[in-house]
Structure formats: structure tokens, C-alpha cells
## 1
Amino acid sequence: MSVHRLAFIATALFIGSLSSFAAHAQPVAGDNWEAGKNYFLIDPPQPTTTGDKIEVTEVFSYGCPACNFVHPSIDKLAKALPPNAAMNYVPAAFNPAEDWPMFQRAYLTAKALGIAEKSHDAMFDAVWKSGELATMDKATNRLKSPMPSLEDAAKFYAQYGVKPADFVATANSFTINTRMKQADAYVKACGVESTPSIIVNGKYRLTPQTAGSWDKVEPLVLFLIHKESVAK
């Protein structure tokens, strides 16, 4: 192959990479998003955990029916993020009546053990479809008593290669207790009052309600990612 041919190919690849970058850098068309209406500034901004990538965080609970309803859309949002952004999840615990502290501990334990990502969707199904970790009694449409326990969650996670006893031991460790406190502090500092809530780069908070509808969450998040990209 000639030198001129190689140069042509290299130039074409370079232009293609620039085009790809430009596509991700373009503002998101759509609504005229307004701070204080569609999204809210977090003051002071909260630290992120995704390095040099723009962090998109869902504050959620497996015990939250709205989170269960939208989690396929959250999966879609995660796949739609540009290369300079990354998805993150923070479990909330502010509804103890519906077992949220247990689900928070379970998620953080699964994350520490490296099985949170592969088990995430299945955990929602265990609560809302199969019922093995259900918080509601379908026969009476009332909250169960007793609620699913950490030991019940450990049995669920056993299918991902973690012995129930090891899961429980990790869940009750100092590390997980600390991470639960950190999650609670993050939720409070971000001003989260309902789930699901989305936090963009520790600076902006939004919900499906503030966005206008769930269909508008993705374009709003992409708009805020672009805003952060320009700022960087």
C-alpha cells in the first residue's frame, strides 16, 4: 500500500473521530430547560466517584414501586450516555416502613462483592415479579409482616456465587455501615425527597416530574451532560 494511500486512511480516521466527538458535544435539542423548574442546582456540589467522567446517579430503592416501573428506562438511559459520562447508583433508605434500609444494605454489599451490576435488574424482579423478596402481600395488598430480611436477600444473591453466610458477614461489616452513612449523607446533601431522582455530576438534581415526563428525562440528562462538558 502506498504512502499516499496510508495518509489518506489516517486522515479519514482522524476526521471520523472528530465527527464522533462533535456529535457527543452537540447541545441536546428539545425543550428550553430551566434551572429551578426542570432541574435544581445542588449547593454545594457533591463529590463524584467516576474519575474524569461526568457522573449520572440514580437515587433509588428496590422497595420503591416507581423505581421498579422506570428501571428499564434507566437501563436505556445508561446505554445512551456519551463516552465521557458514566452511570452510578445510590440506594436511599428514608422509607424504613417499606424495608428500604435493608435494600440499601443489600445493594451496597452486592456492590462491594462485585455482583451489583449483574444482579441489579433481577433484584427488582425478585421484589416485584417473582415475589421472593416482595414487601407487599398480593392477597391483601398490604405490607408484609415480617418484611424480607437480610438473610432472605443473601439467599437471593447466592445465585451469583456468594455464600449467604459470607454475604451477611460483609453486610454487617464496618465498611458497609460506613457506606450506608455516606449514602444517607449524599441523599440529604443533594436534597433528594423522592425516588427515583437523578443527579448529574453532583451539581444538578431532577426527577421525571420536574423534567415534565419520563420521556423527557433522557434529553434533559444529556443536556446537563453537555453543559458539564462545555464547562470542563
## 2
Amino acid sequence: MPASRPLETPPATDLGRLRAALLPTPAAGVFVLEDGVGEETLTPASVLFPIVLRPAAPTVLLTQRTAHLKDHPGQISFPGGRAEPEDPSPAHTALREAEEEIGLPAGRVEIAGYLPEYRTGTGFRVTPVVAMVTPPFDLRPDPFEVAEVFEVPLAFLLDPANHKRHALHYRGQLRHYYAMPYGDYFIWGATAGMIMSLYQALGARR
């Protein structure tokens, strides 16, 4: 993954600028490879990148997955999952999964745009669907999949001071990744990678 490039002005509360940095439609040919991932056949999936329009400042809604799940157990993630044959679009997949996982009503969600596909070492090519979520809303997390739902200020996630580089040995290779520790939450892996994708899109837009 490319190195983080600091932005001259924190863009976290400039939602017009953020919208302008997004892709207007999903772009399968534009993608980010997780460190160490090859070009093998991957399963299509989508996540909702939900930016909650709180009066004080926008936040990002995230979930913590339950510890028994096969894929990414216990990790911090966006609501989402693999595409089903009946899903007409990546946005439909993201909205369906968000409603199934946390009970987020689609009527409170406005699709703002897309980030490049994120291709993971666990076999998925994920379309991040960025959306604006208007409160109020009542969530109903699925206890099988979701241990907790919480929000993090968008300004925190887009501040380069909070982008920490880590490395680990995995399957005989040294792999590098970003993490964004927030209180007791350790945001890393694909979720941090997609947040970095938004950060870098804003930098490119500047």
C-alpha cells in the first residue's frame, strides 16, 4: 500500500470535498491490493462506509465482529458481506448487509459514492460504498455476527497523526499494514485500508 501523504488541511468536516473525491460508480478495474495479495480469483463483496451526520461533527459507524466467525473474527469492520446472486449492484449488497447485520434502515442512508475495490488476503474483492447516514435511527445488531456497534469521529480517522504503520510475519512473508487505535478499539486490516483509501483519495483531489 502506498505511504500516507499528509494533507495540508484536515478535510474531515468538508463533506462536499469528500463527495467530490469519491468515484461516482463502482470501478472494478480500479483497486487497492492488501499487502501480500496476488491476482487470484476473488469473491465479490461490498461494505457500507457509513458517515453519520451528527450535529457536532460527522462520525463513522463501525462494528466489532463476534469472536466465533470464520472470516475476520473479533475484528473492527464496516457492515457488509459477500454479494448474493440476486443483488443488482454493490450498493444493494452493502445496504442489504447493513440492514441484516445492524438493522440500519436504508431510508436513512444516502449513497455518496465509491472507493476503489479493496482486495483482501482472505479471498474477497470488496467495493466500499460510502454513504451519509441521517439520524435518528435505531439499530438492531445481529448477535450472531456483531458484538458491538460504535462510532468514531471522522476527523480522527482522517488525521495522519493517527495512522500507525505496523508489520507482522504471515505465511512466511513480512506484511505491512495501517492501524488506527481508538480507545479500546484497534482498527486495522481491511477496515483501516479502506479508511486510508479515502484519505488518499482526498489527497489526490487536493
## 3
Amino acid sequence: MSLNLYAKIEPYIGFKKEQEELHNLFLEKLLNLGVKKVLDIGCGSGDFLLKAQKSGLEIEGIDLSAKMVQRAIQKGVKAFCIDLCGFNKKVEAAVAIFDVLNYLNKKELKKFLSCVDNVLVKNGFFVCDINTLYGFTDVAQGSMIVDKKDRFIALDAEFEDEILETKITLFEKENSGCHTKESGVIKQYYHDIEELKLFKNLKLIDIDFISLFSDLSDKAILTFKKE
């Protein structure tokens, strides 16, 4: 995954309204579970960290993008650029918001869930979201153009064989007046909920199907409990 490239385009590709709605749903879920110490896995630029912190949760985040973590820290939250499997604290709940699981293939997902299990206390919770099949085939596929004064972004996404491949092209204007070009590919993977139920240490206890981008369910929020 092109982490640095995605960090550059993330502020310009929109979805703020949908992100805010999803964050509210996650926060409501955590507050209803009655947890206090929380880890945000793939915290990005820290928007959810800040919202949760203001609501009284003891939360910190981790992300593999140093640029994203830097943005988060500037907002006054705790964030670290480390891999989940290197996180050595125990928390009552962990969250992975806005497609984090979909960026992992099946092998990576198995390791990821094992590391989630390791950071949770007994009877701890893991709350995450995944794209539904409809979310991939009818919502995520397609093209997007963002034309700003000093940058031009093109996204072209195609879903095939349960993989969404998004090609990213970024043109940035330099002080000299010339433009630099960067390109990369991001892959996201469809995961069937029935397969996620098979992970032995995390029991799926709740599923909420939601509609962020359409009238039909394009995402599912899953809540697991460590047994």
C-alpha cells in the first residue's frame, strides 16, 4: 500500500461527512460497552482519537504512516508510528475504523486478528468495520477526479476476484511552476463475515449493517469479544 502517497491525498478526497457519521457510531458503541482504555488501530490523522478523548476515553492510536501520526500528534492526541504486533500494552477495547481490515489480505488478516487478541484484556472488545460486497461492487468502483489550485488527483478503482484495485495519480505544482507526478496502487480485499467468525479467540457478538454512501448497506460494523 502506498502509505505516503495516500497521506498526501487524504485531506482532499472528501468523505468528511461519512467519516464523521462512522466515528459517531463507533464512539456510541464504545460508550455503551462501558470501556475506558482504548486503542485505535490505523488511527490516521487522529480525528477519532480527538473525538473519543473529548468524550472521556483513555485512548491512543497507532498507524503505519509517519505523516498521518504527525498530523494526529499536532491535534493533541497520543499516537505512535508502530505496527500493531509491536504494541505491548493491554487495553479494554480496540477499534479499526474505515476499511482497515479491507486493506489486509487473508493471510495478513489472520496475523492481524492474532495481534488484536494479544493487546486485549480478557473479555475485551474489538470493534471494526468492513465493506459489504455491495459496498465494493456498486459504491467503491469507479473514478474520481480532484482538481485543486496546486494539485490534481485521479483515482480509478476496479473490483475483480474479490479485490478492489485503486490506481492513484497525483500531480503537484512546485514553486518553479513545474509539476511533479506520483502514482501508486492501493488494494482492498473483500472479507466474508462467516470467515471472520472462525477466528477462535475472538467471538463475534454483534453486527450492524449501515449505509454511508447509498441507500443500501455498504458497510458492516462488527463487534468481537475476547473469550
## 4
Amino acid sequence: MAPKKTATTKTATEKKTAAPKTTTKKKAAAPKATTATKASTTKKTATKKPAKEPKVKAVFQYQDLEFTEASCVKKAQAGFKKANKGVDLKDISIYIKPEEGKIYYVANGDINGSVDL
């Protein structure tokens, strides 16, 4: 009876050693295929050029006044710097009221002011 047990043990060992070899080969082959797929996808997207957005200039006209957003931002920044010397300007929001002839601003979230349009 001893020979039958050793024969069964050998086949079980052979099956255990054979299984990891085949799974290792399959795992190694799978990443290579996905890497090649990603590389080909990257090449396709790299050749496409993003569409350039056109330059935009907005000019506002109100009665006898004519002004741009950029000029209003510059005036508000200058007004802030003049009124708050030594304070760094981190962000600014402007509110243009042409009927009053004023540009109101809120700088750094809590500093309010106004300048003439």
C-alpha cells in the first residue's frame, strides 16, 4: 500500500508546482498588453492639438462713457494700493456702476472701496 500513497503525493506536488508557473506566465503577459494599449492611446491624444480660444476684448458704452473690464480692474487695483499701503493684494472683485460713475471693489475678501470710472 505504500507505493500507492507516494504516487498520489507526487501527482499532487506536480499539480501544485505546475499551476503557479502557468499563472505567472499569464500575469506577465497581461500587463504587457495593457501597457501597449495605453501607449497607443497616449500617442493618439498627443497628436491632437487643443483648439485655441480667441482673444476677447469687451468694451462697455454707457451714455458718453466708454471703458473696458481691464481698465476698470487697473483703476480698482490702483485705488486699493493707494488706500491700503503695505497690504498685499491677493484677490479683487469689481462692481461697475456706470450710472453712478463708480467702480466698487472688494479686495482680499474684506476690504471695500471705490474709485471713479
